[in-house]
Every structure is written in structure tokens, then in C-alpha cells.
């Protein structure tokens, strides 16, 4: 079972992201193939990361390429 709440950026895998984007209507076809962490900041009560996502060639061109 994939996590519903992310407690570590390492949990944001292509599999998790594909399922999450599909479940929420942002990815009707294709799949996330890679997730790259660009910046991570540890705050007092949270961890904030900026991610870049790569998709399979059959994914929509408007699938989110950057996530916060």
C-alpha cells in the first residue's frame, strides 16, 4: 500500500506520484518515470521540497513537471 501522507521526500516515488496524480485527475494516461529533488529545506515543523518530474512519452504534455 502506498502512503497517503508523505513524511519523507524519499516516499515520493514515480509509482506513488503516478497513482496520486491519477486518483486526483491530473494524469489520465501515461506514468511518472522519474522524480528529482531539486531543493529541500528543513523548517521548524515541516520539510519543504521542490521536485521535478519526468513522464512516459504517452503522458499528457500538461502533466505537472514541477511540484512543491
Give an account of the 3D structure.
By secondary structure, this protein is an alpha+beta fold. 15% of the residues lie in helices and 32% in strands. Strands 1-2-3 form a 3-stranded antiparallel beta sheet. A hairpin with a 4-residue loop joins strand 1 and strand 2. The longest helix is centred in the first third of the chain and has 10 residues. It starts with 13 loop residues before the first helix and ends with a strand. The mean pLDDT is 90.
**Total count of helical runs of at least 4 residues:** 1
Radius of gyration (CA) equals 12 Å
Broad structural category = alpha+beta
Shape: globular
Order of helices and strands: HEEE
Please give the share of residues in helix.
Answer: 10-25%
Could you tell me how far the N terminus lies from the C terminus, measured between alpha carbons in angstroms? Answer: 23 Å
Q: Main sheet?
A: 3 strands, antiparallel
Topology of helices and strands:
Layout lengths: L13 H10 L8 E11 L4 E9 L10 E2 L1
Antiparallel strand pairs: 1-2, 2-3
